[in-house]
């Protein structure tokens, strides 16, 4: 599970239409330690036996599936792919545009923003 939570930081202008931070949304400042403690507390309630159900819910709500995306792995070599599905282990299954190979993405960054802006 990869998530980013903006606590109090000022956002870059290009992120303002699509992002916010907790201080602006809730009207209070939350320290990284407080956020981590609350997040770990909530995540600790998930049981491994419920993982398939969680993956199904995630798959249903994932806005990336069925779209052309930019993939930016940790080595920084960006490529274009089509988001196909969520694997039962939580990885993203994509079809690379350059060669049609289906691969699973375990970490890195994916984005539809540039694709949507071009349309």
Order of helices and strands: HHHEEEEEH
Mean pLDDT: 81
Low-confidence stretches: none
Strand order of the largest sheet: 4-3-2-1-5
Helix content: 25-40%
Describe the secondary-structure layout:
Layout: H1 22-26, H2 32-43, H3 51-61, E1 68-72, E2 79-86, E3 92-96, E4 102-105, E5 109-111, H4 113-118
Antiparallel strand pairs: 1-2, 1-5, 2-3, 3-4
What does this structure look like?
There is one protein chain. By secondary structure, this protein is α+β, with helices and mostly antiparallel strands. Helix content is 29%, strand content 21%. It has four helices and five strands, in the order H-H-H-E-E-E-E-E-H. The protein has helices spanning 22-26, 32-43, 51-61, 113-118; strands at residues 68-72, 79-86, 92-96, 102-105, 109-111. The protein has a five-stranded antiparallel beta sheet. Strand 1 (68-72) and strand 2 form a beta hairpin. The radius of gyration is 17 Å and the shape is globular. The chain starts with 21 loop residues before the first helix and ends with a helix. The relative contact order is 0.12. The model has no long low-confidence stretch (mean pLDDT 81).
Summarize the structure.
The protein is an alpha+beta fold. It has helices spanning 22-26, 32-43, 51-61, 113-118; strands at 68-72, 79-86, 92-96, 102-105, 109-111. The chain is 29% helix and 21% strand.
Descriptive tags:
single chain; 119 residues; alpha+beta; five-stranded antiparallel beta sheet; 4 helices
């Amino acid at each position: 599970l990869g998530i980013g939570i903006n606590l109090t930081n000022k956002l870059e202008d290009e992120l303002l239409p699509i992002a916010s931070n907790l201080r602006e949304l809730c009207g209070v400042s939350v320290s990284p330690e407080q956020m981590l403690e609350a997040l770990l507390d909530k995540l600790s309630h998930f049981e491994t036996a419920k993982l398939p159900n969680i993956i199904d819910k995630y798959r249903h709500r994932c806005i990336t599936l069925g779209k052309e995306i930019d993939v930016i792995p940790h080595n920084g070599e960006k490529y274009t792919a089509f988001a196909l599905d969520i694997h039962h282990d939580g990885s993203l299954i994509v079809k690379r545009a350059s060669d049609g190979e289906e691969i699973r993405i375990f970490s890195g960054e994916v984005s539809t923003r540039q694709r949507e802006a071009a349309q």
